[in-house]
Amino acid sequence: MLLLTAVILTAGITAFATTTGSSKVISQQTPKRTEFLKLYEVYDTLNSQYYKNVNKEKLIDSAIKGMVNGLDDPYSEYMTKSEQQEFTDSMSGDFQGIGAEMGEEGSKIIITSPIKGAPADKAGIKANDEIVEIDGKSTKGMNSVDVVKKIRGKKGTTVTLLIKRGVSTPFKVAIKRDTVHVNSVETKMLNNKVALITVTKFQQGTAAEFNAALKDMHEQGMKKLILDFRNNPGGYLDEASKMANEFIGKGEVLFYTENNHSKPQAYKAENPADPVTKNLPTVIIMNEGSASASEVFAASLHDHDKAYIVGTKSFGKGIVQTAAPFKDDSMLKFTQMKWLTPDKTWIHKKGITPDKLINLPDYANIHILDPDEVYVKGESSAEVKSLETGLKALGYNPGAVDKTFDENTALSVAQFQQKEGLEVTGQMTGKSTLKFTELLRNKLNADDTQLNGAVSYISTLK
């Protein structure tokens, strides 16, 4: 079930792990150990006696994946060549496609935001456009991952989308694919020269983007700094280290690593801190979606008294993965060590507790209603409670916020429909549901209690 905050605060759904980057290529040798005899016997039996031809490569890949799954570690995985390429692309910030972020609203695939200057933007694609078909094939039954795979393709090739915009007749748009770069750092100057820098992930080049952002904000007269790391799932550890080094001087410990075979090993800042950050009051906003490399960065600054942390407790991922490629371009990503904060705290499954707890409003965590469903009087469900919570946030009075769609709920829905120029039925479905979700998103963006709280908090810092 999707949560409203997941739609607003994240640009897309991409899995990242804290990684140390690629290591040396692993040489493949034929093992002679007896513990593998059963594996060979199973392979030979299936290869020779299965009732139809088998895909040998698929059998081997599946066997390796099974071995990794035996670790019961959600962060370790074996990737085939194609899976490795997708992972590498996601960590580089570059991909070949049309450049549009999308999500799911019920059974519909909706453009959430075309990337500025990308092919989709140039072709006139707009936020809230629905993708009905891709190259003549209906998107019905597809999820956003399926759609992304079909839309992405080689630079210079063309994909044709059937787009539905509002109540207008669907129209076709032919878009030529190109290389698209997704920035991981965004900047904004708030009132009183408080700079806001949002870091969405630690991909290749994030540290350079961050350095440029600091310089830009400094040139605009930055006096204080807020770093928004909410829903930052992590990424490359070396990028986070370079960023922390902007604040922490040469020779100071950024973090420690430790495994079963060694004592904690210190990783220290290699360069002098950036003069721009000297004595710069800094606050980091985190939430339960802030994980991995974002926690490494935040803990480094916090333990060295370079920043305060506000928001909610972070995710708590205190382990490090390394990527080991094979000659056939497949790859093994596995947990190699755990990391500790500069004061040698292991935050795994515990998270980082903020200096000041600041929650989002209750309606930020409601379930997104499916526009294909019809919510009517007499119904009792968790979705009805979400509906009532949202209606109350929008200024209506649905009565008791419970799981029951009663007369008060129906009246509030009717009032909402009348105010928004929708068909007045007292039932929540279709266009009414989409409008309801849109208004809540806009309200949450406008009433960002965590950002507002961070601004208030940093105003007290000298």
From TrEMBL:
Signal peptide location: 1-17
Q: Which SMART domains does the UniProt record give? A: PDZ, TSPc
One Pfam family hit: CtpB_N-like
- Molecular function GO labels: endopeptidase activity; serine-type peptidase activity
- Where does the record place it? Cell membrane
Domain PDZ residue range list: 84-166
Give the UniProt entry's GO cellular component terms.
outer membrane-bounded periplasmic space; plasma membrane
Keywords of this entry: Hydrolase, Protease, Serine protease, Signal
Membrane protein topology class:
Single-pass membrane protein
Primary subcellular site in the record, as a coarse category:
membrane
Q: Name one GO biological process term.
A: signal transduction
Q: What does the similarity note say?
A: Belongs to the peptidase S41A family.
NCBIfam families noted in UniProt: prc
The name this protein goes by in its record: Probable CtpA-like serine protease
